[in-house]
Design a protein that fits this description.
This protein has helices at about 5-35, 35-85. With about 80 residues, it is mainly α. The chain has one domain (about 5-85). Helix 1 packs antiparallel against helix 2. The longest helix has about 50 residues, at about 35-85. The relative contact order is 0.16.
């Protein structure tokens, strides 16, 4: 998978997660407001699922950042070694 594709997946995960978090929070509040504990609980579960997706996207971003940093470091070392010879 290319860096571009991985970044796209991370962005999609984060967007989906935020959407689920928002929908879950709304469902929680409506459930609380009308006294429907089951609805509020389903909202809590949806919000937690959204948080999981959002964090998965954030982790993917961090992994790609680390890969980019490592790649740049390897290139810098190669440059230094090639200039010595």
């Amino acid at each position: 998978m290319s860096n571009y594709e991985a970044r796209g997946e991370a962005k999609a995960d984060k967007a989906e997660g935020r959407s689920k978090e928002f929908a879950g929070k709304v469902k929680e509040k409506v459930g609380d407001l009308i006294g429907d504990d089951e609805m509020a609980s389903r909202g809590t579960v949806r919000r937690a699922d959204g948080k999981k997706d959002r964090l998965k996207g954030e982790i993917k971003d961090k992994v790609e950042d680390a890969k980019d940093t490592a790649k740049a470091g390897v290139e810098a070392v190669k440059d230094k070694l090639s200039k010595r010879h």
